[in-house]
Design a protein that fits this description.
The chain has one domain. It contains seven helices and three strands, in the order ααβββααααα. Strands 1-3-2 form a three-stranded mixed sheet. α4 crosses α6 and α5 packs antiparallel against α6.
Length: 233
């Protein structure tokens, strides 16, 4: 049966520490540059719209959402939703985050392969997040190898999703960095600081991938697929 295993902490504590550091860094970086006005004086919403229109996207709406840094692009409705801290703010942080999300809209329009793959993985990942542990635990409890392997496969799907997310987010930030200067939203002297906002946000996705990897490795070990014989406790 599944009981608490101290080895789980050896796998997950480093990942949790990395996630915590990344989260604090994102918040600190955003708040720091939220106090720095951008060169153009545009709001986050205006910067995103300028980036979209400059790239020929006139059918993507920009709306205000609720929640702190809840910014995201909805490919199903072709809507870019920006948090209050981004939508109406005229700071380096606001325009950086807004243009990053606009970068996802450009990816969608261009059928960027990693984004398409990530979108296709969403249903499997949602299922995995809810049932992977229970499927694995049932397999261990009933000594059913098939269920154990299905559980491992679900954990693997979550890791693949996190891994595919990395190039998607990196590319969106790269598009934002190019546009911010080319469109005159930030000055060349502000380019590096705007990049710091985007780079800090990327660390959260990197931490998520590390956490997914460590979770997968732990359950592969419990299944006996790596690191020795199968654990029967």
């Amino acid at each position: 049966m599944m009981m608490f295993d101290m080895r789980y902490l050896l796998f997950m504590v480093p990942a949790m520490l990395l996630a915590g550091v990344a989260s604090l860094l994102v918040k600190a970086t955003f708040e720091r540059f939220a106090r720095v006005p951008c060169y153009s004086g545009l709001t986050g919403a205006q910067a995103a719209e300028r980036m979209l229109r400059a790239n020929g996207l006139f059918d993507v709406a920009v709306e205000q959402a609720q929640g702190f840094l809840s910014d995201h692009y909805d490919p199903a409705r072709r809507v870019l939703r920006l948090s209050p801290q981004v939508y109406g703010a005229r700071s380096l942080s606001a325009v950086g985050v807004a243009c990053h999300e606009a970068g996802h809209a450009l990816q969608h329009a261009e059928r960027y392969v990693p984004l398409s793959l990530r979108t296709a993985l969403v249903p499997v990942t949602n299922f995995s997040s809810l049932f992977a542990f229970y499927v694995f635990a049932a397999g261990m409890l009933f000594r059913a190898s098939s269920l154990v392997y299905v559980g491992c496969a679900l954990f693997a799907a979550a890791f693949v999703f996190a891994l595919v997310t990395l190039p998607v987010e990196w590319d969106a930030s790269a598009r934002a960095k190019r546009h911010l200067v080319a469109a005159g939203i930030v000055s060349p002297m502000q380019e590096a600081d705007a990049g710091k906002v985007l780079n800090a946000a990327f660390l959260t996705y990197l931490a998520g991938a590390v956490s997914s990897l460590m979770t997968l490795l732990y359950f592969l070990m419990r299944a006996g697929l790596i690191g020795g014989g199968r654990n029967r406790d």
